[in-house]
Design goal:
By secondary structure, the protein is α+β, with helices and mostly antiparallel strands. The chain has helices at residues 54-57, 104-113, 132-138, 149-152, 160-168, and strands at 12-16, 29-36, 40-45, 49-53, 70-73, 77-88, 97-102, 117-128, 142-146. 18% of the residues lie in helices and 34% in strands. It is globular and about 45 Å long.
Length: 185
């Protein structure tokens, strides 16, 4: 494994460095669902809610439990494709579980039987080819971290990136609250 990658990458999170200005990933937190040095990485952006539900995207799931599932913008790859995922935050250290690419049937069973697990829809995903993510980490575009379920489950999606940055650097981080365009202040 590449030494610049955390020991527990899958699942792991990537925090966009404050200097990353790519509009697809600026101020984003990506949850990796798969990582391999030879195959690359796949994940979804966790802090870009669409403020819509699956039922608002399509009538195909009217009157089903999927109708109320929130939809997030998962990333720039296949951004017109809905991907279902389940997040089980667990109750203790190391108990986080992320299931990516659920079938409709699997998602329905989880929604019907499992109150602990959160189901989300993602429009698209984030992907890196072999070596690409490692190069971006060396360039300091991303900061990789292991998932801390007790921390992640408590955060609102709108504050997730700032909270992660504050954990990594608890010192003065006043620039985090600086407006993107100071002329609009």
């Amino acid at each position: 494994m590449d030494p610049s990658m955390p020991s527990q990458v899958s699942p792991g999170i990537l925090i966009a460095h404050p200097s990353l200005k790519d509009p697809n990933f600026e101020k984003s937190v990506v949850l990796l669902s798969a990582y391999s040095p030879s195959d690359g990485a796949v994940g979804v952006v966790m802090n870009r809610p669409s403020n819509r539900t699956i039922g608002q995207w399509t009538d195909d799931f009217a009157y089903t439990p999927l109708e109320r599932v929130p939809v997030f913008h998962g990333g720039p790859v296949q951004h017109d494709q809905l991907i279902l995922a389940a997040l089980d935050w667990g109750s203790g250290p190391g108990t986080f579980r992320f299931r990516f690419g659920l079938s409709i049937e699997e998602a329905m069973v989880i929604l019907d039987r499992d109150d602990q697990t959160e189901v989300r829809g993602f429009m698209g995903y984030s992907g890196w080819s072999s070596g690409q993510l490692e190069a971006e980490i060396r360039q300091r575009a991303w900061v990789p971290l292991s998932v801390d379920p007790s921390f992640m489950a408590q955060l609102a999606t709108e504050t997730l990136w700032k909270s992660c940055i504050r954990i990594m650097n608890p010192g003065p981080v006043g620039l985090l609250d600086f407006p993107d365009d100071p002329s609009l202040n």
